[in-house]
Specification:
The chain is α+β, with helices and mostly antiparallel strands and 312 residues long. The chain contains 9 helices and 17 strands. β15 and β16 (288-293) form a beta hairpin.
């Protein structure tokens, strides 16, 4: 559960009770398939009249749908996993609407970090109470993300995983096979990072940029304790053979993530990351990948996203 950056930011506010709720649902996503009637029943049982919009075709259908419905809905609900939440949040940022979340994904990192219950009935109850809090969003070039973005080994694994899934592999076996293949041959990426007036150069297996700080020392590894700190955190592994990465993560879990020789950590409100040997590079955004032009311009957007969260 995150904490506020000031008394004003920490204070919970109530969205208007009389305004509309719209649920954005991707009907072709495995996590959301066949859930429309169930979601409608849950909102009806909570005494709420919620419009359910199923996304269609387009460059970014979930973001486009969220942007369109935010004109008349005070709460736009992302029904899905972290990818769906990220795209709906991108459509909500900059509007007067608040983001609600129905966690239907496998990992649901965002929901866990803001304290939204994973039980759907309880998540609907949170939306019904309409307590909201402003948190940070982040951006790379023109794309919004709410959890993290990375370059290097992880986007390569996701690319191969998706290829295997198109060939019929189940999700987790595809991920395991893709990870084995990439670890066997990946050679790292050469990056130049500019933050403030500092320029640093690394050869690294990956660069991981978080919207606020991630726990890399012990348990709960990979979570955030706050999402309104107004800072990006970049994590870089030392130059090492990719087969040694599992050992690095094991050391982080044992509480050694920040020790000398383990991970480099850079915090800033703005980062420029260049890859001198590539003008275009595959980038992951909240678990999904796309190709972007370099240099990559990362920046934090303090308080840009209003989220419906539990009152406590």
């Amino acid at each position: 559960m995150f904490t506020g950056s000031s008394a004003a930011a920490a204070e919970l506010q109530a969205a208007p009770d009389t305004s509309a709720i719209t649920v954005v649902l991707n009907p072709v996503a495995a996590s959301s398939r066949g859930r429309t009637a169930e979601i409608a029943r849950l909102f009806s049982a909570a005494g709420l009249d919620a419009e359910i919009v199923e996304t269609g075709a387009g460059r970014d259908p979930a973001a486009d749908a969220a942007r369109a419905v935010s004109a008349h809905a005070s709460v736009v609900v992302a029904a899905g996993g972290d990818g769906t939440v990220s795209r709906v949040a991108a459509g909500v940022v900059g509007t007067g609407a608040a983001l609600g979340v129905l966690p239907l994904g496998t990992l649901n990192h965002f929901a866990k970090d803001v304290g939204i219950p994973l039980d759907l009935r309880k998540a609907v109850d949170v939306i019904a109470r309409r307590h909201v809090r402003r948190i940070d969003a982040a951006q790379v070039n023109d794309r919004v993300f709410v959890n993290n973005s990375s370059i290097g080994i992880y986007p390569s694994i996701v690319e191969q995983r998706d290829e295997l899934r198109h060939r019929g592999y189940p999700k987790w076996p595809a991920f395991a096979v893709a990870t084995f293949r990439v670890l066997r041959q990946y050679r790292g990426v050469h990056v130049r990072m500019t933050h403030g007036d500092r320029l640093s150069t690394w050869r690294t297996p990956f660069v991981f940029v978080g919207n606020n700080e991630y726990v890399i020392d012990g348990w709960p590894l990979g979570t955030r304790l706050r999402m309104d700190g107004g800072q990006l955190f970049a994590y870089l592994a030392p130059r090492t053979h990719t087969r040694a990465l599992p050992l690095l993560f094991a050391r982080a879990l044992a509480g050694r993530g920040r020790r000398s020789g383990e991970f480099q950590v850079v915090s800033s409100d703005e980062l420029w990351i260049d890859t001198p040997r590539a003008r275009r590079i595959r980038v992951s955004l909240d678990g999904e990948t796309m190709v972007m032009r370099t240099p990559l311009h990362y920046r934090i957007c303090p308080g840009a996203l209003t989220v419906v969260v539990p009152a406590e």
